[in-house]
């Protein structure tokens, strides 16, 4: 695929600002467990400014996917993201996976999420990432119908592609480039070990370098509550610096990359 200004490949840094909504959706007893929820509260409360500071120092743009309820409950954090010049896009209203919803519920989540971003921050979301990337067979058609022009959920490619019969451009993701796959931990997952920065960093750098060699799009998926832990900020900085210092890589927001991939109207 051809990239702007002769770039060899493209890079998109994305942050899913789940806050405690991800825990409320994952665990039915979460509403009664402030300890569990507090892991997510750390995201908007502490991690967002720390993450924004790293991005600012290297001048790298990013896209933050925000559930509507997070925009309503933590407006200050979303305002900080917008004031720093980054893109805010749709990440559900709650953090429930579309794959587990009825047709009616899925559309309601989509509409309420759009309305919440508009009402709280005047944002018209152009793109959508499903909670947990867990789309339903109806998701693309719903996005098309509600005017969203890109999605970032599927793993079928390493370059953007358009969903047939729609305006929706897919920006492909993968678990290897997701911080949750390496660092997710909760009271409910004691069988897992928390990875070291060296393990996750080696996996991310290998995948990013491979995508760069192949001329693809590298979509990193981070979560402020995970990558924004004090001991991981240096790892985030390593990834951001690698992107910023590679002149052959076009670094842009998800919306900008989708517009480029769609081509002239
Ligand atoms: Zn999420």
Total beta-strand segments: 9
Arithmetic mean of pLDDT: 96
DSSP summary: helix tally: 11
> Which architecture per CATH?
Alpha-Beta Barrel
First-last Cα distance: 18 Å
Question: Describe it for me?
Answer:
46% of the residues lie in helices and 13% in strands. Strands 1, 2, 3, 8 and 9 form a 5-stranded parallel beta sheet that branches. The chain is α/β, with parallel strands linked by helices. It has a single domain, classed as TIM Barrel, CATH 3.20.20.
Question: Can you give me a brief rundown of this structure?
Answer:
The chain has helices spanning 21-26, 34-58, 68-73, 75-83, 103-121, 139-145, 179-183, 197-214, 224-227, 233-245, 254-262, and strands at residues 9-16, 62-66, 87-90, 127-128, 150-151, 161-162, 169-170, 217-222, 249-251.
